Amino acid sequence: MFAAIYNAPGGYQVADETKATDAGQRYAQSLFELTIENGSLQKVEADLKSLKAMVGDSADLRRLIASPAFSAEDKGKGLSAVAKKAGFQPLTIKFLGLVAANGRAGDLMGAITAFTELSAKHRGVVTAEVVSAAALSPAQLKGVQAALAGALGKTPEVSTRVDPSLLGGLKVRVGSRLFDASLRSKLDSLKFALKRA
User: Fold this and answer.
1) Of 44, 53, 68, whose CA–CA distance to 116 is shortest?
2) pTM (two decimals)
């Protein structure tokens, strides 16, 4: 998660941004426990999901989080400004400030994923993240949801994300399991097989 950063045409991109590191898990667990104590779980989760969508849509925000050119203080100020403008809960704003101040902004997206998983488990639901090369149509999303419901035995809460580097196909993450049916993965496998031949 944020371990591999590369400069792409659209700005900084992050490799495997949804996998939580140990630090990300700890931050998520602490925030989760606080939200349970003060009854703000749903509101903070909504804030974090909004932030995740903003990061996906904004090259500048990705650059702020991922680039070592920005200090922890700059990252904290930037994240706090975004959070305040979006009307996030005070607890969410404090969380973002703490993560940045501790030099852990790179763990933020994984912490959000871990928090979402903790919340889903608390509510007794299964979550799935579907990553595609292009935005899925409503019919395609319904088909994916039906296939996941059949495979999992219950209907999951599905979030979607677009990653053009996949070229085609899908990646689906359910908890710690990743199902990779992307064209990029198939091409990489073929390249590896050809090198070994």
Assistant:
1) 44
2) 0.70
